[in-house]
């Protein structure tokens, strides 16, 4: 069995550093969480929500899955959205994809990857919705990046069309849904300019 003692050592060093900077941090954190943001991102280990936003634990409520999907039959994702919107009263939902996404790339070929093929089918559908636009792109990297962006835009629409978000908007709750893409090459977020609130519902 491989040794994971280094993880506990790293954890202790991290906790000690936090306490050194703010002695009351963990006492305050343990009382409650009041994040203003729900982050729906990819499970990719290179895309850590808190770190790339420059935020501390307790500031971002996070849900992650392969290729940042929001599927209307996924009770896991929907439960996270419901808790974030109805109980935590987050003000922003961020759907964040990233360039170089393995899930998006896998959806672009005809190979079989096992169980995940069923999950990737939703990205294949995004490709189908935008087939004309994507087929017109001859550079494979540009096509890949464009599909990463289109996938985020589609998931933003899916968030907006959940009964959870629609009901929040009907109740005049302050809530905006955003679509970002993260660039692994330079660490920079790109705003896809598809933010929606109760005044601008996405289809």
Overview of this protein structure:
The protein is globular. The model has no long low-confidence stretch (mean pLDDT 94). The protein is of the alpha/beta class and 203 residues long. The chain has nine helices and five strands. The longest helix has 21 residues. A five-stranded mixed β-sheet has the order 2-1-3-4-5.
Helix content: 40-55%
The quaternary state of the protein chains shown equals: single chain
Give the SSE order as H and E letters.
HHEHEHEHHHHHEE
Measured distance between first and last alpha carbons: 52 Å
Supply Rg. 19 Å
Flag low-confidence runs.
Answer: none
* Structural class by helix and strand composition: alpha/beta
**Beta content:** 5-15%
Mean model confidence by pLDDT:
94
* Shape category: globular
Strands side by side in the biggest sheet: 2-1-3-4-5
How many E-type strands?
5
> Total helix count?
9
Tell me the major beta sheet. Answer: 5 strands, mixed
Describe, in short, the structure shown:
By secondary structure, the protein is α/β, with parallel strands linked by helices.
How would you summarize the topology of this molecule?
Layout: H1 5-21, H2 25-31, E1 37-42, H3 49-53, E2 60-65, H4 75-87, E3 92-98, H5 102-107, H6 116-129, H7 131-135, H8 140-160, H9 163-170, E4 176-182, E5 189-191
Parallel strand pairs: 1-2, 1-3, 3-4
Antiparallel strand pairs: 4-5
